Write a sequence for this structure.
């Protein structure tokens, strides 16, 4: 199962990717998680990306393209993966086609999480993430068992710097300008599968399973 998850910030891509990859034992490839990891490690990539991420802007295409190419070439991706948060620009979409062609792979589905911006602002401002494992919670909609602590490893939860109002606004603008136009490109392919992403996490997961052909499982 080779899937790409695509949609506005806060549409639930990361949350649904976690549920799906746990169920099917696949790698969850989140470009956002990988970039935040580079920032924490203070690598060259991390240093170039940090201010852009915090401001809600895209990091340069050449960085994300190279990270994606390297990650998809790892052996654990051979039997499937969920690529979450890539592509986000036409250049990234072109590069993805090349990477897949080089590997002689085809995507099964491009899953589009469709939701209105005004419905997801509250999701983003209430998001809390684990410092250690990146697990994602919400102060209201997906609470950890112990407030402020990760269920998986007990680490402290934090609010991402780009989950504050000014960066959230920028992220929606960037999405509308650079990422949403990709939808036209993917609408031409029968691989586009649309999931209505309003509703509870469980409801959205059921819809996701249905559009990828595992409804009822
Ligand atoms: P994305 O990866 O698309 O930016 P996330 O999966 O990180 O979005 O979700 C953003 C926030 O919204 C998180 O705090 C998450 O717990 C919460 N969330 C995700 N899906 C839902 C949902 N269906 N209903 C309510 N809150 C949700
Ligand atoms: P996310 O975790 O998907 O919300 O991504 C967080 C931030 O990481 C984005 O706002 C960008 O700054 C950066 N980022 C993640 N994926 C990409 C990508 N494909 N292209 C450019 N920047 C990205």
């Amino acid at each position: 199962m080779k899937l790409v998850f695509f949609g506005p910030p806060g549409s639930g891509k990361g949350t649904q990717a976690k549920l799906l990859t746990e169920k099917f034992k696949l790698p969850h490839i989140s470009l956002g998680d990988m970039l935040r990891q580079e920032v924490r490690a203070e690598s060259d990539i991390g240093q170039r990306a940090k201010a852009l991420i915090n401001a809600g802007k895209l990091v340069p295409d050449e960085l994300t393209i190279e990270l994606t190419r390297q990650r998809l070439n790892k052996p654990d991706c051979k039997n499937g993966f969920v690529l979450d948060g890539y592509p986000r620009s036409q250049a990234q979409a072109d590069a993805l086609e090349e990477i897949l062609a080089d590997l002689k792979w085809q995507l099964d589905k491009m899953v589009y999480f469709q939701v209105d911006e005004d419905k997801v602002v509250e999701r983003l401002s209430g998001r809390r993430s684990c410092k250690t494992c990146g697990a994602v919670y919400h102060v209201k909609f997906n609470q950890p068992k112990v407030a402020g602590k990760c269920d998986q490893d007990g680490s402290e939860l934090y609010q991402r710097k780009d989950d504050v109002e000014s960066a959230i606004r920028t992220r929606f603008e960037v999405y509308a300008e650079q990422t949403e136009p990709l939808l036209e490109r993917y609408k031409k392919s029968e691989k586009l599968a649309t999931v209505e992403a309003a509703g509870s996490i469980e409801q959205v997961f059921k819809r996701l399973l249905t559009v990828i052909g595992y409804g009822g499982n």
About this structure: The longest strand covers residues 109-114.
